[in-house]
Input
Amino acid sequence: MSIEINLAAKVVLITGASQGIGAQMARTFHRAGATVAINHPDIGTTRQDADVLAAELNGFRSQSAFAIAADVANAEAVQGMMQELKQRVGGIDFLINNAAILRDRTVSKMSIEEWNAVLDVNLSGVFHCCKFGLEVMRDRGAIVSMGSIAAILGAYGQANYAATKGGVQALMRVISREAARRGIRANTIAPGVIETAMSATIPENIRSEMMKNIPLGRFGATEDVANVALFLCSPLAAYVTGQTIEVNGGWRG
Output
């Protein structure tokens, strides 16, 4: 007998979903039958990118995807987005906290503005989405947040980024306890280096050094992360909560 993940009649909100890993998650959850809310911060081309992605998905299944704007660093904007989702689709079943930014610099050179900007999006943004998302999430739902190998390794030049990702992993463990009474599970995915436009900016000499640490001998694909997120939101992971799942090809530093 085959095993199928069927999320028909379920709604997933994916933050920062206009490109990269978030966009691949949108496609993956859509293929599983879910209605997909594609969040973007309405900065640069993100609105256009989200609209194009929604149109792509709706081409396969009518009225099954839509773009929704909110800067996750802004608590009021997030609260408004969640209320809009409540009115538009009756709430959500799954929340994927994917939105994040980088402002890499050593501690001695990092500005206070660079520190705060990363904390505002990567950690406070996750808190905002969980706080207000739980208000509109149906029971027996799931939250998946993006951690990072940077938090596990203590990546050089990423004090702000690594700190936020470590914080996210701790936050999910707390929420896994607090939301358990409603049957809501909360987990973290900690990817290694994933082939995206962001990782493409890593200098080739550094990429080569990174590759030496990966037993599987390749960087990850966005599908590798999206498939784990789908699993964590599916009935197959019904007894998995409060965990950090490393998706890094075996990288141990």
Observations:
- The beta strands are 11-14, 35-40, 65-69, 92-97, 137-146, 185-191, 244-247.
- Residues 112-136 form the longest helix (25 residues).
